[in-house]
């Protein structure tokens, strides 16, 4: 592409173009960080008003029943499940990814311990998002039964690492830094062939790429709602457990929301039959209610259309950076192959942090991840092809003029 007009033409032909109107995004902002915190759907402000005024204010305690608060984790779980290839009653929206990983990993280890106590290894990647590794480390310490976390440095090493002492593989489908996407079906099959269970983290997949959990015969999955699903800062995460595993065991955070009859107020814990047993305690209803506004936008399209546009946006971005920013020290770290690419694109630059700060100062918001990585997330619901063009032109100008060298761009905030 040599001309902004070609990007404008792609936007005119884009079947998802109208969905941008569903979002409250400042017109001057190019937002390429929906992979970290999505943009608010316009409906969210009115929904928050209703939850706080009518439901909490007028309904008060009655709203647990009358406004459907108590059922919300399951109802939203079903709505979300459609985006990730889950069946009815296999997903609940609740807690954080970290907490849900603790539940799913505990459950998986428990199942495996009963089947074959010699399996003492959890396989993951060193490049996984750190909280996933921290949770595994904490659980291993807590169980104190000689479990081990085995980390590989490259996806190609996974087949050799999944040996017959592995209890569970804990893999993030799309890598948060590089954008590398695993073949979920093939890796799950491999894990099963070696007797292991497959736990998937969908943080950078849900709402970003097509996911078929049941098709892939996966065993457990977790993910968040504040990234591509536009649920809001800190909105509750989700956990998926297929029907075949739900009643085989219980998870250790056996709080009253996971009880079969919570309002019997029995002194004895009895887990719910089904996905409800993965709940723990009272949910943050104000925040959770807003998750629905993001999910409702997805009902106006489908994941095939979203994926098609995502690949077109990331293809164009890679092409433009490589042609218009050639020789400017940017190195692509995201796979070119469609089947291996999520919905964000990362480039390394020796002064990545400063370059990203210079971009943000000019209204192009991406983010930076250690070491040296400029990360650009493409959320097809509101990112346009002209945004891709304009981003690359701004990036080129910053690199050619070296305006990133201004001292203010070297200052670091607590969150990068
Ligand atoms: C964003 C992200 C998380 C976040 O975990 P929380 O507990 O919800 O803060 C976890 N894992 C991965 C892979 C992520 O990308």
TrEMBL record:
GO terms for biological process: anthranilate metabolic process; L-kynurenine catabolic process; L-tryptophan catabolic process to kynurenine; NAD+ biosynthetic process; quinolinate biosynthetic process. The keyword Hydrolase applies. It holds the Pfam family KYNU_C. Pathway: Cofactor biosynthesis; NAD(+) biosynthesis; quinolinate from L-kynurenine: step 2/3; Amino-acid degradation; L-kynurenine degradation; L-alanine and anthranilate from L-kynurenine: step 1/1. Its cofactor is pyridoxal 5'-phosphate. It catalyses: L-kynurenine + H2O = anthranilate + L-alanine + H(+); 3-hydroxy-L-kynurenine + H2O = 3-hydroxyanthranilate + L-alanine + H(+). This is Kynureninase. The gene is kynU.
